[in-house]
Amino acid sequence: MEKIEILIPAGAAKILRVLEDHGYEAYVVGGCVRDSLLGRNPHDWDITTSALPLQVKALFRRTIDTGLKHGTVTVMENGEPYEVTTYRVDGEYLDGRHPSEVTFTASLKEDLQRRDFTINAMAYSEKNGLQDFFGGLQDLKNKRIRAVGDPMKRFGEDALRIMRAVRFAAQLGYEIEEETVRAMKILAPTLSKVSAERISSELEKTLLSPHPEKLRMMYEAGITAVILPEFDRCMETPQNNPHHIYNVGEHTIVSIRNARPDKVLRLVMLLHDFGKSVCRTTDENGIDHFYGHPDSSAEMAGKILRRLKSDNATRCAVVKLVRFHDRAAGLTERSVRKMIREIGEDLFPLYLEVKEADTLAQSEYKRQEKLDYLADVRRIYRKILDEGDCLTLRDLAVNGSDLIEAGMEPGKQIGEVLGAMLEDVLEDPSHNEKGYLMDKYMPHSQGYPVKKRPGCEQE
């Protein structure tokens, strides 16, 4: 058997040495071993040991009681935190997520066999080398995700592992072993026990992975039927239309893959056509149409992201981009300026990326024409940026204080006047001059109430 060597960072290596010098077993374990074997730089170095939590605490100067009941102590070494957990055997998982109790054990193998997948159930130390009881190294070589032991038991302990299997497959570009898939399909309904935050986290990690097309595997395993039933309806919605070659769900998968791994972008591509399942009509020629689907999709996106406990900033950005994804600007500077104003300066570049990812997931019909149009919009957009055109109230040469100083009473009229000024400037950027705007939009010339100033009669 080949000799495996893993370079352990100094802090983790010192913790292992201290534990070993005092007669305990100690190994780095789990994801850091997997990633090291794959030639990646691990983010975290977790440690497993035969030492009990209080014994760990007695050996190190700075520790944090992370989860003593479950055997975990955080040891601070060189300013870095390392989680050190006692070998343990989990009790029953009554809630489908957490063990009701844990029992400490002296056996590394017993500790590793409670873990989810073979590639995550390996341990390593410089003293004893790689400990691989369940074939994790071979599964890495075979690019295979396989549950440790009985997959029905592993997924029965923690339903979230069903999604983690797909997530690891997506991150690593692996396939999932047949028995593991079979158990996933049987136990997928138990995902209803898992919190929305956990579901959302795993879904996002899958979407942001190098292989977001593994979303199809979630559908085939019955996962989306529980966590995202709207996607299942998309997979069942055809698009008999010259502009499309896929059903709505397959188009969605391809469009996600076409977008760079940005959270907002890939969520937009996931949700942008969900409304098509309820907006589909078929004309007398058998051609499908989806009138009103952007607004319907935006409404659905908002509800889904609330259900998944998404943060407000992400939800607002995604909903707006979904609403605008099918909108086209005219190929004039004025039209593009107004589109930027509507969508928002920060979101407009993402809107262009959404349009491109969407187009590349359609048929070849008029594709080049659509891409040429996008290239023209990008050219106009760059010209607008280069020339520093006013696009928002922030860039306007006049502000609310200027209007109050000129005599306008504070109130909603100020916003209306500034809005009118901005529309004027969007039409013609050369009008963004304080003198021009004040002369044209002085409040007394528009019939707005003006404050009476000392020594002057109110006009």
Descriptive overview:
This protein is of the alpha+beta class. It is built from 23 helices and 13 strands. It has helices at residues 10-21, 31-37, 53-59, 108-112, 136-142, 151-157, 160-172, 178-187, 196-207, 215-220, 224-227, 229-235, 248-258, 263-271, 276-279, 293-307, 312-324, 333-343, 348-359, 367-387, 400-405, 412-427, 434-441; strands at 26-29, 46-49, 63-67, 72-77, 80-86, 88-90, 102-104, 123-125, 129-131, 144-145, 175-176, 281-282, 288-289. Strands 3-4-5-2-1-8-9 form a 7-stranded mixed sheet. A hairpin with a 3-residue loop joins strand 8 (123-125) and strand 9 (129-131). Helix 6 (151-157) crosses helix 8. The longest helix is centred in the C-terminal third of the chain and has 21 residues, at 367-387. The protein starts with 9 loop residues before the first helix and ends in an 18-residue tail after the last helix.
